[in-house]
Amino acid sequence: MRKTTQDEQSLTRAAVNGTLYSMNVCKLGEEVLRTRAEPLAEVTDETRQLVQQMFKTMDEENGVGLAAPQVGLSVRLFVVKADDEIPRVFINPQIIQTSTETGPYEEGCLSVPGFYEDVIRPLKITVQALNERGRRFTLEADGLLARVIQHENDHLDGILFIDRIDAQKKAKIEAKFIKKAASAAGN
Ligand code: K1U
Ligand code: ZN
Q1: Tens-digit pLDDT profile for residues 18-65
Q2: pLDDT value at position 178?
Q3: Who has greater pLDDT, 20 or 98?
Q4: Ligand nearest the Cα atom of residue 78
Q5: Does the Cβ of 79 fall within 6 Å of ligand 1?
Q6: pLDDT class for 128, splitting at 50, 70, 90?
Q7: Neighbours of ion ligand 2 (CB under 5 A)
Q8: Which helix or strand (DSSP H or E) is residue 152 part of?
Q9: CA of 152 to the centre of ligand 1 (A)
Q10: What is the mean pLDDT of residues 104-123?
């Protein structure tokens, strides 16, 4: 029998019995957040179950997006529910165009809770991806939607929003985060 990879096993665990479980969100310091994720080979019922669990987790955490590496799965998939409240799924996404016009927006991240910083990014993008039925689509986005898609797409490449801010601010956040995590662990 072919050996399954850790990701395939995790995907299976996420879909046990068809029951919707929310998932733990990985935090700054965990290796999976710094790993380039692999494309998803096919879109199956298991993928759709994972997508539902990711939406449930995102809603419970009051997020507007969530990428698979944030729930410990190193695959190229993310979900977004921005200000229009439309749930959108992006599998093997590619940002094929970005506007030359850029601007700041105060970003947060469920993997770096409690910290917010202005990040400068293109204001408009065009993205191509597969949806949860495995169909290819192209989307032009601006506003919060464009912002969140870029933030989530970064997660697939092991990039966090703190990598896109001033180095001193990043170092301060990392130090505060480590301190906060240590005190939460009772150290
Ligand atoms: O990837 C994530 O960690 C989710 C993240 C997405 C995101 C929010 C804001 C700008 C870019 C990307 C969050 O949802 S953080 C939650 C949050 O603080 C927030 C929610 C709605 C609007 C703005 C921030
Ligand atoms: Zn994030």
Answers
A1: 678 889 999 999 999 999 999 999 999 999 999 999 999 999 999 999
A2: 84
A3: 98
A4: 1
A5: no
A6: very high
A7: 109
A8: helix 143-156
A9: 9
A10: 97
Task: Reduce the DSSP state of residue 168 to 3 states and report it.
Answer: helix
Q: Which atom of ligand 1 is nearest to the CA of 25?
A: 3
CA distances in angstroms from 17 to 12, 25, 29, 115, listed in the order given: 10, 21, 32, 36
Q: What are phi and psi of 56, to 5 degrees?
A: -60, -45
Q: Which residue has the higher pLDDT, 177 or 104?
A: 104
- The helices-and-strands tally (H runs, E runs) of the chain is 4, 7
Q: Is the CB of 153 under 6 A from ligand 1?
A: no
**Binding site membership of 147 for ligand 1 (Cβ less than 6 Å):** yes
As a whole number of angstroms, the distance between CA 153 and CA 94 comes to: 8
Give the count of beta carbons closer than 10 Å to the beta carbon of residue 115. Answer: 19
Instruction: State how far Cα 174 lies from the chain centre.
Output: 19
